[in-house]
Amino acid sequence: MRYTLRQIHCRPWKLNGLSLKLMESHYENNYGGALRRLNAVTEQLESLDMYEHAYHMDFGANARAYVETFLRNVEWQGVEDRYQRAVEMPALQPIAQPEYAELPSIGVEEVKERLSSGEPLQVIDVRPRRSLSRQQDIAEGVLWRDPELIEDWIGQLSKSDPVVVYCAYGFHVGCNTARRLREAGFDAKYMDSGHSGWKAIGAPMKLAT
To answer: Of 75, 108, 129, 132, which has the maximum CB count within 10 A?
Structure first.
């Protein structure tokens, strides 16, 4: 089981007294880093050789005896109490964007996997120019295009290959660009966590030039 990235739960540019850089750092490094470590631990556990590492010293090849002994040591009431506390805690709700309800989105992990597999996919960074200048980095293998000049570059895209566009965080700029592309006949989606999501999953970056 892999844990997938969730979109940032605020509009960072609207926060009072907290800088964009601070919010991006928390999301990309703290949250994203914790998610990457959790997935790494999960992968290690899934590939664990139980015979060699878990019970051979005490139980030899008798896996059944190990499992029965382990279960006798579980404090089941404590497990039940923790489970109930976990399921009763409300999850953070994503920011509602009803004006884009009909617009298809795609997760950053899926975009990365499809690019890695060599699938023909046109991925375009459409952060506003001011955002690109401030952050000074871009996803490896992705083109930046000015969202305000879409009519100048839309003709360079192929209608035979899907298009994914993203802005800084996955909100209105990316959504509006994807909508315009779909109106022009492209199979376009917006990436729901934007540039910060790409950084949060540890995908390759490079300096913007």
So the answer is: 108
Residue 202: closest CA among 9, 35, 49, 63:
35
On whether residue 6 sits in a domain, the answer given is no
Distance between CA atoms of residues 206 and 146, nearest Å: 18
| 156-194 residue pLDDT tens | 999 999 999 999 999 999 999 999 999 999 999 999 999
Question: Each residue of 108-132: pLDDT tens digit?
Answer: 999 999 999 999 999 999 999 999 8
Same domain, residue pair 117 and 84: no
Distance between CA atoms of 50 and 150, rounded to whole angstroms? 55
What are residue 189's DSSP bridge partners?
164
Domain count, the chain: 2
Nearest-angstrom CA–CA distance, 62 and 164: 52
Q: Which CATH number is 129's domain given?
A: 3.40.250.10
